[in-house]
Amino acid sequence: MTTTPTTPRPVDPNDFLMGGGDGVPSAKFPDPGTTVAGTITAPPKAFREREYNQQTQRSDGEFKTFPSGDPIMGLSVDLQTAERDPSIEGDTGLRRLFIQGKLLKQTVREAILAAGGKGLEPGAHLSLTFTHREDPMDKRSAKFYTATYTTAANVQMMGGAPAAAPVAQPAPVA
């Protein structure tokens, strides 16, 4: 039986929120067509989403809430990817994926349901591709993604993570 590697998780949520934590690099989606894929290494963690702060260029503004005052939640999950960044000394390919915002949550949820899953689980395989922006000329406009998910049980039955499927490039927006 194969065991799934685990990654240390931050002990203090505020340390993690404020930039401390365990040093796992974030998954990045700079351009349409970018895909991040890998095996989930630990259970996802929920957190309160924050507003993007133009001054600090970080999501460290006020906590987001629904009109009712209830907090808007996001989650993070660690993926063991094939990605290696030469600027990160000893990069193992571990990436933290932040799933926040209505569109991204919905895309990931639909991929899990299509695979017959009940949620993100260690040992499962998740692939996320940034397809396009709502307004290609505005870097702050909504991003759209496609996602595929393979449950941990299916990954084990297949003898490992699925081979990367070719990613269709989005059509140019006129």
The overall strand count is: 6
Return the string of H and E elements.
Answer: HEEEEHEEH
Instruction: Based on Cα principal axes, name the global outline.
Output: globular
Q: What fraction of residues sit in β-strands?
A: 15-25%
What's the rounded overall pLDDT mean? 80
Helical residue percent?
Answer: 10-25%
Termini gap: 51 Å
Helix and strand content put the structural class at alpha+beta
Main β sheet profile: 6 strands, antiparallel
Low-confidence stretches: 1-11, 164-174
Radius of gyration: 17 Å
Number of helices: 3
Structural overview:
Strands 1, 2, 3, 4, 5 and 6 form a 6-stranded antiparallel beta sheet that branches. The protein has helices at 13-17, 102-114, 152-157; strands at residues 35-40, 45-48, 73-81, 94-99, 125-133, 143-150. The protein is of the alpha+beta class and 174 residues long. The chain has 3 helices and 6 strands, in the order αββββαββα. It starts with 12 loop residues before the first helix and ends in a 17-residue tail after the last helix.
For the structure shown, list the relevant keywords:
alpha+beta; 174 residues; six-stranded antiparallel beta sheet; single chain; disordered N terminus; disordered C terminus
Question: Can you lay out the helices and strands and say which pair or pack?
Answer:
Blueprint (H helix, E strand, L loop, with lengths): L12 H5 L17 E6 L4 E4 L24 E9 L12 E6 L2 H13 L10 E9 L9 E8 L1 H6 L17
Antiparallel strand pairs: 1-3, 1-5, 2-3, 3-4, 5-6
